[in-house]
Give the backbone structure.
Amino acid sequence: MNVESEIFEVKDKSLAGRIGTLITAHGKITTPTLFPVINPLHQEVDLDTIRKIGYNAIITNAYILKKHKEHEVLSLGLHKFLNFTGPIMTDSGGYQILEYGDVEVKPHEIVVFQEKIGSDIAVILDVPTGGHASYDEAKWTVEETIRRAKLSTEYMRNEKTIWVYPVQGGKYLDLLEYSAKKLLEMPQYKMVSIGSPTQILEKYDYQTLVKMIVTVKTTIPPNYPVHLFGAGHPMFFPFAVALGIDTFDSASYILYAKDERLIFPHGTLRLRELKELPCSCPVCTKYTVEELLTLKKNERVKLIAIHNLYIIWQEIKRIREAIRENSLWDLLEERSRAHPTLLRAFKELVKYVKYVEKHHPISKPEVSGIFLYDKLSLNRPEVVRHRRRILTKYVPPKFFERALIIFGLEEKPLTRTQIYDELRKEEKLQKLHILMFMPYFGLIPEELAETYPLSQHEKEYDEEVLKESINDVLSYLLKHRGKYSSVIFVILQKNLEDQVLNLARKLKDTIKVHVIQHYNKDAKELIKKLKDHLHVM
């Protein structure tokens, strides 16, 4: 599906993640990306440094500007005031409402102000739900935000400003869905945000955030770019992107720096607990731990913040490349082992495999092999698709009379193995439909053996994976019991013997099954055994 609007165009996909182009009045933004939060009154890391690291878009707070620098920023314009030529997103004071309960500005005033100063992407003055609200409190924030969203449209005049509709409701998914649906009544909004999950992220409650993202993404049309406020640590970014988040904002780079914590893809480390800096960014290349500790506090904070910005940008680029390679699932598998909360998030994500698989591309011009590790990998879109198609859409060729299923053949593809070559040379075996059992994928018919990724993967599996894959064989044979007059199981590995014999027992009253245990893998000897079986069948 081509996902495109007047401001947003998708260029590439993997899972429900996408690389896109967001078009603003001050330039194009490649997504997914992060907008570093900029304090308009005091910024520890100068914008030129941030720009040179790779960030071409930032976010700042329009409410703070209006409260403290209104005349100056109105006179110069936002971009000249900050001395930043790229796209600038402005928040409106919602975070201050979440923290302090109220702000000294009316919703329509901040709308007019943001347009006057030239915000490229602007947010209305919403009322964030937060992570601690009761259901009734959350419902009020949703209704009040919707009321303000409708009111704000009456003051929108600048067509160059991309207005963001904040979806509220927090952890209450029915409220979140209701809030998201109201977007469709207000065409003035071209972008969507998931309202402040900061308090949820502070508790590392990534499971809840997964459910929130999926609820919003499955409610709104796919052509809307979706922003996640206060995204926090980059270790969750791959999961958010995999579910369809396009942009983030975060002040984590400076907040962690003030606590003298260095961000890494797998977590954070305190400077004073390190002996060496396990990083090769310009800061960590130039300084040792001891040298950083001898600096003045403000200098040290600035340098740690720069390091953090480099690591976050590195992670953004890693995610983009994973989308291009169609290997975003591999990145999730890797990152899910970095922290128990991420593993819980991954387990929550696989519950929405139908949603993820729906958006995952079937193929790309350039493909690379996939890695399969354990039961979670059964939810990988490529695996899900193959299993579903074999069990629901696949029809065995009419020519074949019997099925020959080979268990324990590690070589792939099946059609390029010696066993297959010898079988197909035998005239008396021509009406055998040859299928290969493969953990994760279940059954692979010979005519599909070279289809991606059936022969382009590496795997490690356990008993749970084996059991579920064997169950697919049972389902297939029960479905096609009228097609095959009999089935031959060939076991090439002794460790599969119990599972395969148990499968044969389950089928004994339904279809005629013969089992050949052939552990030396000599192809010609196997042919002889097959002929003997066929002679008595």
About this structure: The longest strand covers residues 17-24. The radius of gyration is 29 Å. The CA atoms of residues 180 and 338 lie 32 Å apart. The chain has two domains: 8-358, 372-536.
